[in-house]
Write a structure and sequence with these properties.
Helix content: 40-55%
Number of strands: 17
Radius of gyration: 24 Å
Strand order of the largest sheet: 2-3-1-9-8-10
Oligomer: single chain
Length: 628
């Protein structure tokens, strides 16, 4: 796990500022790699790397030069199946000087070129300059676990693990893309390859780029899910295979030359990871849990302790306070580069900080909700879809629809979501699938309360919907459940992984996410939607797969919280002045994006916390730390 940066110059030029600039870029991402640092200056390019040593601690230095001197690479991430790939390459005649996955990755490129990506199982972002062709090859992993940003100018193409590094390059100035701000207030992330910064793009998950003469020569998706239903397997067979694949993924991701721990919330996902990971180590597993002392509603440690005791692990807990929030929030917005998707950012950062005192690698349960269908918004969307099918006797999803009568037994799970149901059903009832899911995840209905009229003048919901619809309707499936989960895997999940990357790397540790394995994703995509969402039960096949893995107290939980943070209590109490000073400052008023009068009144009148207010606080702090 590391940080990478580089510049490719037009016409193989080499300005005298290339080395000091790449050095400055590395300074800005030094937290990603405290164990090593180096720069390579080649003909027409300059690469830099900072290293967090995980595998082959003595011989993993980068930039890495191929055995024949033809290629130079910088790589961030882990290739989990590197030992298996190494044996394939040895049989093909390759010799190895190190035990690193870095050398395996380089030789895979020499052997297969871009076709190498079909063989990789891991999380990665890398760049390889090939002197033989004069091209530079960049790619990012299947799910977007590891970040990779770039900027293209008349004279050069530059890339880095974090956006902040690109602004160390002469002539690159931080400026806001107002159109992308509209996407942020709508989704709290940006679609496709855009960022909130004018001219700064991200390589999308499962894509690669070829650069030639400092220009993008080819930009291509190399992997996508096939939703063709496998009719030959029973539910039991799918569940058994799923458990095998999850176990295999955890086994691979336990490979490390340093100690591995786990994030443990006490929920189904992280508990599954902890219980299965404990079978692949002979040492007591360090388990890291965060909670808050404000009330029992913010404390799940009792469930985490059940799992820790079951695996005879070492339980480590942290109880952050509002003072920790105030003292860390600005630094977090600097680390993030872009505003966060939710308040859990702070909680995750504090637990990562705890973990960094004990281990260098941590496994987490990220991705299970998107992979297996764990969000209650799927139930709300499907409830309407089932009513629509029952009333109009439509079959737009064919035989794979979840019927209304099959959902009745699980509708009680929605009792805490009645306000959202009322809002969702009040407008556009029975519209097409894409419009209904857009309305369900749209965060902008109350935008006029928190954002200024001038800023919202150019806001165009139909333009945003058209872009959303292009992603939502892209997979070749008629199933609304598959369309929703696919959309979240391609957009919402990378936003969450952005948080996962920054809070871990900000504390100089590596976070691994075993559920995000391409084989697990491909198997899940091939399951009938009625099976995945049987009777409206979230994660149906996953729960069937792990029913004998988890303690009954965890498996049968009805009160999972999703790592809640007492942000309402803090911002309406001891941290209110901090929020007021940030959101209604003179600088904020001059900027003109926020409706500071409404926010001022709201904060001073016993407000109730909302995602809108959180989004505004993140946005203003981001402006102050990253734009000003």
């Amino acid at each position: 796990m590391c940080g990478i940066a580089g510049i490719i110059f037009k016409n193989n030029s080499q300005p005298d500022w290339s080395r000091p600039t790449v050095s400055n870029m590395l300074d800005s991402i030094a937290h990603r790699g405290p164990d090593g640092r180096d720069i390579f200056i080649g003909e027409g390019f300059a690469f830099g790397h900072v290293r967090l040593a995980i595998i082959d601690l003595q011989n993993g230095q980068q930039p890495f030069v191929s055995f024949d001197g033809s290629c130079v690479m910088v790589f961030n991430g882990e290739i989990y199946n590197y030992l298996e790939l190494r044996q394939i390459l040895i049989r093909k005649g390759y010799n190895f000087k190190t035990n690193t996955d870095t050398e395996v990755l380089m030789n895979m490129y020499l052997e297969y070129g871009s076709e190498m990506l079909k063989h990789l199982n891991g999380m990665f972002a890398f760049a390889i300059h090939d002197k033989r062709t004069g091209k530079t090859f960049l790619s990012r992993d299947h799910f977007g676990i590891k970040p990779l940003y770039y900027v293209e100018t008349v004279d050069f193409f530059a890339f880095s693990s974090e956006i902040k590094a690109l602004y160390k390059i002469p002539g690159i100035k931080a400026s806001v893309d107002s159109e992308m701000l509209h996407e942020y207030i709508t989704f709290q992330f940006t679609l496709t390859n855009d960022t909130l910064y004018e001219g700064i793009k991200k390589v999308e998950p499962a894509h690669y780029i070829y650069i030639q003469n400092a220009k993008i020569h080819e930009y291509k998706r190399y992997w996508e899910l096939d939703y063709t239903i496998n009719e030959s397997k029973t539910e039991e067979e799918f569940a058994d295979e799923l458990l095998i694949l999850i176990n295999n993924s955890i086994s691979l991701q336990m490979r490390s030359d340093v100690e591995v721990g786990v994030y443990l919330s006490g929920g189904i996902d992280s508990s599954t990871i902890a219980l299965l990971a404990s079978k692949h180590t002979h040492e007591p597993l360090n388990c890291f849990t965060g909670a808050f002392k404000e009330s029992i509603d913010y404390d799940e440690t009792r469930y985490a302790k059940i799992v820790t005791e079951r695996i005879q692990g070492v339980g480590r807990e942290i109880y952050p306070e509002w003072t920790d929030f105030v003292s860390n929030f600005e630094h977090l917005m600097w680390l993030m580069d872009e505003p966060s998707a939710g308040p859990g950012l702070f909680s995750q950062f504090m637990v990562s900080q705890l973990a960094s005192k004990h281990v260098k690698v941590v496994l987490g349960g990220q991705g299970a909700d998107e992979m297996f269908g764990g969000y209650m918004r799927y139930n709300i969307a499907y409830l309407e879809q089932c009513i629509k099918g029952s009333i109009f006797e439509t079959g737009e999803e064919g035989k794979h629809v979840v019927t209304l009568d099959s959902m009745i037994g699980n509708l009680s799970n929605l009792k805490n979501y009645t306000p959202l149901i009322k809002q969702h059903f009040s407008n556009g009832m029975f519209d097409p699938m894409d419009r209904r899911y857009f309305n369900l995840i749209n965060r902008a209905p109350n935008a006029e309360k928190y954002y200024s009229k001038d800023f919202l003048t150019s806001y165009n919901e139909e333009t945003l919907f058209a872009k959303f619809s292009g992603v939502f309707n892209d997979p070749k499936t008629t199933s609304m459940f598959n369309k929703m989960t696919n959309f979240d895997l391609r957009t919402f999940l990378p936003a969450l992984l952005h948080v996962e990357d920054r809070v871990s790397m900000g504390n100089s540790i590596e976070s691994r996410v075993p559920f995000l394995d391409k084989h697990i994703a491909e198997l899940t995509a091939s399951m009938p939607p009625t099976m995945k969402f049987n009777g409206g039960q979230n994660k149906h096949v996953f729960l069937k797969a792990i029913k004998n893995v988890l303690p009954k107290e965890i498996l049968n939980r009805k009160d999972k919280m999703g790592f809640p943070t007492p942000i309402n209590e803090w911002l309406s109490g001891p941290a209110k002045e901090y929020a007021l000073d940030t959101l209604t400052s003179q600088k904020s008023r001059q900027r003109g994006y926020l409706n500071t009068d409404y926010i001022d009144k709201n904060l001073n009148s016993g407000f109730k916390f909302s995602r809108d207010l959180w989004g505004a606080l993140c946005l203003e702090t981001w402006f102050a730390k990253n734009i000003d």
